[in-house]
Amino acid sequence: LRPCCLAGEHIFKWRGVNVPPPSTIDNPIIHFLASMASCASLRDTSSYGSGLRKFHLFCDIFSIPEVARLPASFELLHSFALWAATDPVIVAPAVLEGTPFEPVSVDTVHKYLSAVRAWHIAQGWPPPLSEADLDRITWSLRRLNNIQGHARKRPVRPPITLVMMRALRLVLKLDNPFDACIWAMACCAFWGMMRFSEVSV
Q1: Which of the chain's termini has less CB crowding within 10 Å, N or C?
Q2: Of 30-44, 139-153, 171-185, which one has max mean pLDDT?
Q3: d(CA 82, CA 142)
């Protein structure tokens, strides 16, 4: 059902056990054209691979049978969204019972849901969530984010100092073009009081 393939091919090659309703007439040429159109309809399918992997990981952890994964119900996708966004730090250890969590941001959860939606459509199923369903999931995720908002803050990073710059300079060989570029970026970021992301692409 889920052969080893590139992340961008997951939505096309990973299948469910259920057979979708026909969307075209039963003709090999038409089937080929529909398959070709489906594969070409998305520009960047590689970003969907991680969402599908996470969805199937969730289903494996909670013993969701293959037959319930495609098409997926609102209950399943709502549960998936809550699991994916929950930081286990806010949950009592007695409730966790060894359940693994890999928390991501709410924005990432929405991308995961988009991946599951694209997977459904690519496999010939209708979109699994209506607008009302998405609103309910968004409502839950917003409240969950409010509860665990303080736990998600990254610790404050220490400022870069001249001592750090000197240490960096000592390990770089400026006759090497790559090292020279790194040194130039570090100097621009330091003396220009920029974030490093502003000098890197």
Answers
A1: C
A2: 171-185
A3: 10
Work out the average pLDDT over 131-145: 91
Class of residue 122 by CB neighbours under 10 A (exposed 0-12, middle 13-18, buried 19+): buried
Give me the long-range contacts of 100-104 (CB less than 8 A, separation at least 24): 100/61, 102/54, 102/57, 104/54
b/e for 154-174, b at 16 or more Cβ within 10 A? eeeeeeeeeeebeebeeeeee
Instruction: Note whether 70 and 1 are within 8 A (CB).
Output: no
Residue 191's φ and ψ, nearest 5 degrees, are -75, -25
Q: Is the pTM of this model over 0.85?
A: no
Judge contact between 15 and 68, C-beta under 8 A. no
d(CA 78, CA 129): 10
Chain centroid to CA 12: how far? 17
CA–CA separation, 3 vs 5, rounded Å?
6
How far apart CA 95 and CA 52 sit, in angstroms, is: 26
What is the rounded average pLDDT of the residues 158-165? 90
> For the residues 83-94, what does the mean pLDDT come to?
83
Beta carbons of 119 and 41 less than 8 angstroms apart: no
